[in-house]
Amino acid sequence: MHPLVWLAIFSVVWGAVIPFSSAKHPRSGNPPSSWGDIQKQRRLSRAGLTNDGTAALWPLPQQSNFKSKLLLIEDFRFTVKGPSCSILDAAIQRYYGIIFGKDWRQVVEKSENNATDRRIPALSRLYVTLNPQNPCSDTDYPDVDMDEHYEIIINDPTFSSVLVGNTVWGAVRGLETFSQLIWRLDDGRLVINQSMVVDWPRFSHRGLMLDTSRHFISKRIILQNLDAMAMNKYNVFHWHIVDDQSFPYQSRTFPDLSTLDIAEVIEYARVRGIRVIAEFDTPGHATSWGYALSKLLTPCYTNGSADGSFGPINPILNSTYDTLTDFFTEILEVFPDRYLHLGGDEVDFTCWQSNPAITAFMKKKGFGKDYAQLEEYYVQTLIDLLDKIPSTPRKGKAKADKHEYIVWQEVFDNNVQLDNDTIVHVWKDWKGVEWQKEIANVTKAGYRSILSSCWYLNYISYGADWTAYYNCDPQQFNGSAAQKELVIGGETCMWGEYIDDTNVLVKLWPRASAVAERLWSDQTVTDTNLAGKRLRRHRCLMDRRGIPAEPNLGPDFCQPEYSSSK
């Protein structure tokens, strides 16, 4: 049953009927020209509105209507109508805390002695329900095909107000939107406009890649970043766990590799509707593997003799693939998502070229001096081995999912024969337009693709650089409609050479919010002037929730300002 049909049935049963104005999101606007304009904008933004009175939601919903009539949030509670599960129950508890947190209570208590207008009708209950055809389970995991559709009706008290999720993941997204619809009057009371929201994501893969291999990123910061991702409706945490510099993953099979417990991170993400996709990049970027498994790497030679240095993973030894089979068997058990990122980028062939055993192997295989063919041989052999590893059913599922893979674009460029379900991750040419040719070639070959080329947030410029990220569209290339359907989304990337706990969140947010809206909202939502007005308020909301989002939009202020004690 389509969610709109279910909402209509629910509305009739519960009397959730409301006439709405037909106001649509405007497509034009002007930036503030003076401090007075900024002050006015801040007052409107604090009230959750833009200059035209529409709600300042982020990311912008697909469809929404708002009335000027207010409802006072008073003696409020969420009520689940129909079957529930621990995921939904936890989300409701979490958002109750976000809406009615400590700072809200202090303001309300302070305002209780003020003479205020008590004639505003109250909203005391929001019914939360799921499409009965898609009940949730305590053990559900978000996946690549998850349905995040939700609808909200905030009604006159004569009728019921409802949030309907087509699945539990849609309900989780709807609770975030509901929390953003609420604002406060000058006297501190919480209010919400009568409104309707019908929403779903434009792209199914909306990811954030975080590199934790080059500097230490604590679990506290990783979890805080997941909160920020949930607030911006991201649904994929691409975890670049290892690289040349370190191997911060604690392996049961190879306990000497490192020391990082990841179970809490996976669970924290799961209940927020965020998939955790691990990346173990090989055969390049693997120096750290050799600290514990030196025989895994290729010995490099100078003037015909081993010089004591090592290069990429050695692709010609049977022992290499035995080790990788054991290791990835564990990884596929630890990370429940059916997709695994295999890397495959930036392989330096210099060490392979110097090694006489590899040279002889190349000759035997007929590769000549084309070391891209050797990389193809390695990746193909690895994928064939991974496909033979038995899948483990996730909790609550009787049947296991088939292993699927994401690879960096070089794997495709080197003509590796990939399974049709493989996702090609396009990342090169972050300043130019070559990525458009690459993604056209990938989709023409019939592969699904995700884009990161124009969303490398570790490159920072002074000023409002968020607009460059906002203006990049992953479907903006010369290709057929069928090709563009194969672009399933993208990822913003934060590489770790110059970030750690002290600055990673500030560098990410709210710049990553710009990418989040591009991946969620309708393709026609492109006006940066209007987006900037909403993003100002959104940054302040992030600050209020304890996420240190930098002032990336010029002179302004938040009320209250960010405090690290939250």
TrEMBL record:
Catalytic reaction(s) noted: Hydrolysis of terminal non-reducing N-acetyl-D-hexosamine residues in N-acetyl-beta-D-hexosaminides
Entry keyword Nucleotidyltransferase: no
Position of the signal peptide: 1-23
One term under GO cellular component: lysosome
Keyword Manganese: no
Catalytic residues, chain numbering: E346 (proton donor)
Organism: Hypsibius exemplaris (Freshwater tardigrade)
Gene Ontology molecular functions: beta-N-acetylhexosaminidase activity
Domain of life of the native organism: Eukaryota
Keywords tagged on the record: Disulfide bond, Glycoprotein, Glycosidase, Hydrolase, Signal
Protein name: Beta-hexosaminidase
